[in-house]
Amino acid sequence: MGQDFYQILRGLRLKATPKRIAMLEILDAERGYLSPEDIWKRMRKQFGRLGLPTVYRNLEGLYGGGVISRVIHPNRQLYYYLCRNEEHHHHFICISCRRVEDVNFCAEKELQDAVTGGIKGKVLSHILQINGLCFTCLQKEGTARAY
Amino acid sequence: MGQDFYQILRGLRLKATPKRIAMLEILDAERGYLSPEDIWKRMRKQFGRLGLPTVYRNLEGLYGGGVISRVIHPNRQLYYYLCRNEEHHHHFICISCRRVEDVNFCAEKELQDAVTGGIKGKVLSHILQINGLCFTCLQKEGTARAY
DNA sequence: ATATTTGCAAAAGGTTTGCAAGACG
DNA sequence: CGTCTTGCAAACCTTTTGCAAATAT
Question: How far is it, in rounded angstroms, from Cα A29 to Cα A42?
């Protein structure tokens, strides 16, 4: 993934400001999920003046445009993650080291059937996320908690 | 569901205070999800003095004990719901009228397999929730939004 | 009697808003 | 240039905490 962030932003009709590009670069360099504040801290190394609201506003725009995905941690905070996988999928998140793994399974059809058949409603969105400990963290022990 | 709330609370080693019983009664009388503040407002009709922290603390205890379940709304707030269904299941929630319907489907095995096989991690919990509009709200139109 | 529970007030913590100044296209 | 972005400060709102007084068993 090189310098096509400019194109991606333009595709969303967002101006390709240095800050937005830096955000994408930071997310791209990370294999785990980051909080808005994490991103802000890393960005401040490059930018003298940078407000947290800018980070929030941009994350919202990028998430809305489908460029990044988000994770809802059991601690109720939102974290963001840059997805390279084009297909619809879900995530396994490590509670301890924040690693994200794509899970190429989705019960979309079954869920749709349950709703169309029984409830007769309309599905707007669905959340499917697995929270746990990745292989590495599992070795280290001492991290387990009942989430 | 009659007056066994006393027993339920004792089973969790929680003191059966009038407020805890009232909370369960309120949740039991509702087929939709309620916010802590909703519950607080309803309880204030019966109790002169009642703090919101009490509601939060008790919801936490009841949720921890598995007596009530919770819903994570796309708006990021937590809502609570008294589950009558004993088996493991998930929820369809109506974004508009707050109705909750049980979805007797869970991809537990597939998820476990994905994690055990590919990621080799440990599953601590999983979230599976469908957000949408129930049949009734679907008729009324005008409520749709992209969540 | 004693461990829990509660009220109150205050703090915490993440997220949002308003608006004038600045930057992209 | 016009519109979209940003900084800053302040507000928002849900949730949590500390502690003394009240209550369940």
Answer: 11
Which residue out of A78, A97, A125 would a mutagenesis test of the B interface target, given it has the greatest number of B Cβ atoms within 10 Å? A125
Q: According to the model, what pLDDT value does residue A1 have?
A: 44
B95-113 confidence digits (pLDDT tens): 999 999 999 888 888 888 8
Would you give the distance in Å from CA B68 to the centre of its chain? 5
The answer to whether A46 CB is within 7 Å of strand C is no
The Cα B121–Cα B144 span in angstroms is 38
Given the candidates 1.20.1560.10, 3.90.1640.10, 3.30.1490.190, 3.40.366.10, the CATH classification of the domain at A86-147 is 3.30.1490.190
Q: Is A75 exposed, middle or buried (0-12, 13-18, 19+ CB in 10 A)?
A: exposed
- B12 versus A115: the higher-pLDDT residue is B12
Tell me whether residues A121 and B127 touch, CB distance under 8 A. Answer: no
Mutation target for A interface from B100, B127, B129: give the one with most A CBs within 10 A: B127
Option in A119, A122, A126 nearest B101 (CB): A119
Cβ neighbours of B72 in A, within 8 Å: 72, 127
* Tokens (6 digits) for A94: 């490590």
Condensed to tens digits (0 to 9), the pLDDT of residues A39-67 reads 999 999 999 999 999 999 999 999 999 99
Ranges of residues in chain B with a pLDDT under 50 are 1-2, 143-147
Alpha-carbon span B59 to A57, nearest angstrom: 32
Query: Helix A18-28 crosses helix A36-44 at what angle (to 10 degrees)?
Result: 110
Q: Measuring from the CA of residue B17 to each C1', which nucleotide is nearest?
A: D24
Judge: B115–A122 Cβ closer than 8 Å, yes or no. no
pTM for the full predicted model? 0.88
